[in-house]
Design a protein that fits this description.
- This protein is an alpha/beta fold and about 280 residues long.
- It has two domains: about 120 residues, Rossmann fold (3-Layer(aba) Sandwich), CATH 3.40.50; about 120 residues, Hypothetical Protein Tm841, Chain: A,domain 3 (2-Layer Sandwich), CATH 3.30.1180.
- Helices cover about 45% and strands about 25% of the residues.
- It has a six-stranded mixed beta sheet with strand order 10-9-8-13-11-12, sandwiched between helices. A four-stranded parallel beta sheet has the order 2-1-6-7, sandwiched between helices. Strands 4-3-5 form a three-stranded antiparallel beta sheet, covered by helices on one side.
- Strand 1, helix 1 and strand 2 form a beta-alpha-beta unit.
- The radius of gyration is 18 Å and the shape is globular.
- About 45% of the residues are buried.
Length: about 280
């Protein structure tokens, strides 16, 4: 029986890709005013971003509990030799710690819990690499090493269209947010080793997309062909434009995926986020 890779819905791996690779995706819970939804099961990313502007209270999420992980492990124990859980960066969520608690109390089959150090489709690419290794018949320890190597290489760059939601969540100074919005500044972030780092401030979304495409191209010149995923929060046209810029500059290994940006993080960033993950 094979190794099974488990992850969370905030990776936003396309359903068809997850099914093809045999990845088990556990949904986060999204709290929208008086209602709660399982991310990707009871509400799609597209539906979430459509509802977001009309909410009375800021959207919230719940970390995946140890009990949910245990339930998942038990369901897999009859058809797997081992389980590799690839989680969001432990600096961002209690989910990693909860997965470890569950793994420590589960003895039916071996379970490894790996902190990807990243999130969204950067984590998704790490998951896809590990799942491909599992499908090729590698052992649990070997799949863990594949995930570790991918996590060291993977990069994520994204820009935020508006600071309104970060301001509401208290994650950015209100005065700075107002000044940035007034100047139409689009901050570009790099997410690496569990931290979001501000790497540029561009005066338009177009210039932000150009900056990101050049960053991808820089890595292409160093490494050669890259696996690339472009993601967006209710901004498909802008995502397609970024995809086109990347294709002009980079030889993409396999399909360039275009997917939605996770509502788990979109709660704080709002719609309009566009970015690229690659390794």
């Amino acid at each position: 029986m094979p190794v099974v890779v488990v992850t969370e819905s905030q990776t936003c791996i396309p359903v068809s890709v997850a099914q093809e690779l045999g990845v088990v995706v556990i949904p986060y819970i999204l709290h929208l005013d008086d209602h709660s939804y399982r991310d990707g099961v009871e509400i799609t990313a597209e539906e979430f971003y459509r509802l977001l502007p009309s909410l009375k209270e800021p959207a919230r999420t719940s970390s995946i509990s140890p009990g949910i992980f245990l339930e998942t492990f038990r369901g897999l124990s009859g058809r797997a030799d081992g389980i590799l859980v690839v989680t969001i960066a432990s600096t961002m969520s209690a989910t990693h710690a909860n997965a470890r608690l569950a793994a420590d109390s589960f003895n039916d089959i071996p379970v490894e819990v790996f902190d990807s150090g990243t999130a969204a489709m950067a984590q998704g690419l790490v998951v896809m690499e590990a799942a491909a290794a599992a499908r090729s018949g590698l052992s649990l320890r070997e799949c863990l090493e594949v995930a570790r190597h991918a996590a060291e290489k993977v990069e994520l760059y994204a820009y935020i269209s508006t600071l309104e939601y970060l301001k509401k969540s208290g994650r950015v100074n209100a005065v700075k947010a107002f000044a940035a919005d007034a100047l139409s500044i689009k901050p570009v972030f790099r997410f690496k080793e569990g931290e979001a780092q501000l790497v540029s401030k561009r005066r338009s979304e177009e210039k932000a997309r150009l900056f990101i495409s050049r960053k991808v191209a820089d890595h292409y010149r160093e490494r050669g062909p890259l696996k690339v995923a472009v993601f967006h929060a209710d901004a498909r046209l802008q995502a397609d434009e970024l995809s086109s810029l990347i294709r002009q500059r980079v030889e993409v290994q396999g399909e360039l995926l275009v997917t939605e940006f996770t509502p788990v993080m979109g709660c704080h960033t709002g719609p309009g986020v566009v970015g690229a993950a690659f390794l």
